[in-house]
């Protein structure tokens, strides 16, 4: 790893374990932390510890929260008949930013990936199915990622939900706003055509 004092090397080795952080970025971040004031570095360290001590999964939707149930599950103004299934807590944040979804969520905490040893047992599928049985949920929106793992997860959940008589929908996929058609791949274009709507 990094050539330098052991404490700086140890910090870089911890940072490189974070997703999206390579060796060089970890080294740059470690050097940046070194240049921070002691107050800034202490605040950063306390924030990391605080997240580990205060956050947990909501007992209802499995989203990250400091309160149980989470604020979304506790909000009586949200549509309890509409449930959106996502892979990660970050997906809830992204959907909430749009201001368009007024239902509730269920966070799987991942996606099916047999090659990585992630099966239904490693996901929050049992909790999800428990929520569906005997509930007022009329529609489940599958908002898993449009990749191999996300598609496999959506298909698996669809097969579990269908016998319950609950309507299952999938989020639309297609061309991003501001993009050109000639830059889109064939699968994205095909999905955009499949999801076309009457205007």
Structural description of this entry:
It is a single chain. The longest helix has 17 residues, at 38-54. The chain is 43% helix and 11% strand. The mean pLDDT is 91. The N and C termini lie far apart (57 Å). The protein folds into two domains: 7-54, Helicase, Ruva Protein, domain 3, CATH 1.10.8.420; 78-170, Dna Topoisomerase Vi A Subunit, Chain: A, domain 2 (3-Layer(aba) Sandwich), CATH 3.40.1360. A hairpin with a 6-residue loop joins strand 1 and strand 2. It contains eight helices and six strands, in the order H-H-H-E-E-H-E-H-E-H-E-H-E-H. Helix 1 (6-15) packs across helix 2 (23-35). The chain is an alpha/beta fold and 199 residues long. The chain is globular, with a radius of gyration of 21 Å.
């Amino acid at each position: 790893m990094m050539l330098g004092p052991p404490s700086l090397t140890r910090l870089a080795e911890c940072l490189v374990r974070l997703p999206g952080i390579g060796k060089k970025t970890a080294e740059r971040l470690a050097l940046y932390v070194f240049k921070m004031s002691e107050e800034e570095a202490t605040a950063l360290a306390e924030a990391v510890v605080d997240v580990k001590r205060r956050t947990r999964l909501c007992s209802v939707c499995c989203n990250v929260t400091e309160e149980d149930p989470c604020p979304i599950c506790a909000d009586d103004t949200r549509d309890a008949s509409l449930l959106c299934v996502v892979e990660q807590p970050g997906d809830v944040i992204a959907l909430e930013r749009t201001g368009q979804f007024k239902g509730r969520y269920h966070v799987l905490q991942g996606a099916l990936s047999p090659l990585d040893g992630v099966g239904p047992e490693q996901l929050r599928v049992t909790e999800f199915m428990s929520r569906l049985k005997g509930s007022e949920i009329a529609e489940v929106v599958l908002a898993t990622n449009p990749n191999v793992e996300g598609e496999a997860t959506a298909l698996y959940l669809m097969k579990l939900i269908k016998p319950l008589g609950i309507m299952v929908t999938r989020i639309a996929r297609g061309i991003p706003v501001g993009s050109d058609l000639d830059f889109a791949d064939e699968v994205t274009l095909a999905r955009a055509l499949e999801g076309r709507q009457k205007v």
